[in-house]
Specification:
alpha/beta; about 35% helix; 13 strands; Rossmann fold; binds (2R)-2,3-dihydroxypropanoic acid; about 375 residues; six-stranded mixed β-sheet
């Protein structure tokens, strides 16, 4: 199994599944045991290299659960296939670390874990937004350094986010949940940029605006921006929720940062490379009232030079999905993806995955990204 430490669960299982990190909870292990799988789990906290994962796959491995920190491409899918592999699941909703074309070439279904990260990640975006607006990082560092000498009218004066303009880039599940939280909590007016209109979000916020009117209050509004530039010019606070692909890499660059208000807030809980981090460091240095909250970084775990020294930046280590409920739910979904395929089940076809989180799960794999390409049958009734 290579140089890293591994432990085995259900050693008598007839199929072998490798899991490249310890996952929280027990239910995911029960799901794999019920599918008659022996589970080899890497207990090391180090990021595994392609070579180390290949060694772990070895000559016999029916399934694998991997992490966003690993490069699941041609080499690993070829190795998995050669070892008799039939299923892979990312322990994540994002899958920019997975080469789906390579998986398809080797006939390996790829799962992900949507639906359990939505509110959790949106709440982290809200947390970073207010940490920026109210200068929480700076104030805490000041206090811990013993510099607090008493209340002052001018101490760490921040920005009131109330009925201001909120820009949401990428209005999928998480972006829309963040928008709703900011509108319902703080009566923000939303502009969103997305390739597709989000009618459900527009209708929801439209109805909420009507409700506010019925209470004699000014309604909050929601509109789709024509361009990302329009959004950046207008918004007081921008939160990024796009996927990472070639069209979104460095979406926020020097030119676009220059369009933003000097005292705007920029939050990123999506993927680091969506922002040109070196350009961001330069922008923050030149605009001390511009504030940034980051959960993700361009070259994780490395940070671009100068980032940590900036007082106007709040940084946390890719923990937006880190609540117990979410991380256990992700484990359940990842295990159900692998177990479902190994059991020959069809792919689930509905956005609501909550039935998998309860006792009597559907006989399906909850989220298979390449089900269509691989001609995997689709679940069509709840038994
Ligand atoms: C994801 O799921 O894509 C996160 O980035 C890791 O939780």
């Amino acid at each position: 199994m290579g140089s890293k430490e591994w432990r085995v669960v259900n050693p008598s299982g007839s199929k072998r599944v490798i899991v490249t990190k310890e996952l929280p909870g027990e239910r995911w292990l029960e799901i794999l045991a019920e599918a008659d799988c022996k589970v080899d789990i890497c207990t090391s906290k180090d990021v595994l290299s392609i070579e180390e994962i290949k060694v772990a796959i070895g000559t016999r491995c029916e399934g694998a659960i991997g992490q966003v920190t690993e490069d699941w491409g041609e080499q690993l899918f070829a190795a998995l296939k050669a070892a008799g592999g039939k299923a892979y699941s990312n322990y994540a909703v994002g899958f920019d670390n997975v080469n789906i074309d390579a998986a398809c070439r080797h006939g390996i279904p790829v799962g992900n874990t949507p639906g359990v990260l939505t509110e959790t990640t949106a709440q982290m975006a809200v947390t970073l937004t207010f940490a920026c607006a109210r200068r929480v990082g700076e104030a805490e560092r000041f206090l811990r350094a013993g510099q607090y000498k008493g209340w002052l009218p001018t101490l760490f004066v921040g920005k009131l986010l109330w009925r201001k303009t909120l820009g949401v880039i990428g209005a999928g599940r998480i972006g829309a949940a963040y928008a709703r939280m900011m509108v319902e909590g703080h009566k923000m007016n939303v502009i969103y940029y997305d390739l597709y209109p989000n009618k459900a979000l527009e209708d929801y916020l439209g109805a909420y605006g009507e409700f506010l009117k019925s209470q004699g209050q000014q309604p909050a509004t929601c509109q789709r921006a024509e361009t990302v530039e329009d959004l950046l010019r207008e918004a007081d606070c921008v939160s990024v929720h796009t996927i990472l692909d070639e069209s979104t890499r460095h979406l926020i660059n020097t030119e676009r940062l220059a369009l933003m208000k000097d005292n705007a807030i920029l939050v990123n809980t999506s993927r680091g490379p969506v922002i040109d981090e070196a350009a961001l460091v330069a922008h923050c240095k030149a605009h001390p009232n511009f504030r940034v909250g980051l959960d993700v970084f361009e070259d994780e775990p490395e940070l671009k030079p100068g980032l940590v020294e900036l007082e106007n930046v709040v940084i946390v280590p890719h923990i937006a999905s880190a609540t117990i409920w979410t991380r256990q739910g992700m484990a359940t979904l990842a295990a159900s993806n692998v177990a479902g395929i190994l059991m020959g089940y069809p792919a689930w076809n509905q956005p609501d995955i909550t039935p998998f989180l309860e006792g009597n799960s559907p006989k399906a794999a909850p989220s298979i990204l390449n089900a269509k390409e691989l001609d995997i049958s689709i679940f069509n009734s709840y038994k």
